[in-house]
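seq:
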Amino acid sequence: MSASTNSTPVNEKGEQVLQDFKLLDAVNDRYGGVVVEVTVPLESTLFTSMLRASIAQWRQQWQLNSSLTLGKFSGGVQGMFGRTSSGRDDCSSGGDILGKRGVWIKLPIQHSNLVDPAVKEGFWYHHAEPNYLMLCYWIPEGTHTLPANASHRVGIGAFVMNEKREVLVVQENTGRFRGTGVWKFPTGVVDEGEDICAAAVREVKEETAETEIEAAKWMPFEEYASQPFVQKHELLKYIVDICLAKKDGNYSGFSPVHTSSSFSDENNYMYFNTRDLEGQ
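struct:
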C-alpha cells in the first residue's frame, strides 16, 4: 500500500491553503464507498494520521457531492464545474467529486497492530476471516446502510431411495446424534460457491465413508418415517411428505438452471419448478 498526497482545502481561519499530507490508497467500490487494503507494515501513529487525512477528504467529497445534488435539483449546478482541457467535467482541485459513504479497511492478520487505531477513529468490526479482519466506517450522519455480514449457512439433506422403496440412512459417530440410535438422512452444509445439488452428492459420499458415520444401511421408507424422532419434529414430517410426493411423481421440486449474470463472473444458478414453467 503506497501513499498519495493531497492538499487541505482551508485552514483554521477558513482561508484556502495548500498543504501536502499522506493519504491511504483506496479503490472505489460500486456502491459509493472506498476499500483500503493494507499491504505493507505501518506504524500506528503514521497510520492514524493517514487515516484521519483520508477520512477528511472523503467527507469533504461527500459534502461537496451533497451540495451539488441539492444544486442540481434547484437548477443551480451550472458554473460549479470547470471544464478541463480534455473536455471532461472536473471540480476545483481536479479531484474525484463523487461522495464517499462507506469506508472499508481490510487488515491482514500480520497488520493487527492497526486494529486499535482504526477503532479509535470510529471504525467497527464487520467480519473476520482466518487471515484478515474487515472494519468499516460510515461518513454521512444518521443510520448507516452497510450490509450486515453473512451470518447464515445453507444446510442440505440427501434423500436417496432405491428400487425397493428403501432410503439411505446413517447413524453419526459425532455431533448431537452420536449414541442416540437415530437413523437419519445424510446431511451437511453447502460450501461457499458450491452448487446445492453437488453439495448433496458430496455429503452422501462423505457420510457413507467409514470415518464419518457409525453405520449406514437401506431402510424401508415407512420404517424411517415412523421413528419417534421423525414424528416429533414438524420439519422432518414435512420432509417425509415432500420426499414421498416426489417419489410418486406428485411433486416436481426445484431444479438448478445455470444462468449468466452481469453482476458476477461466478457460476449462477436459479432454482425453480422447471416442469410447470415448461407446461409439462
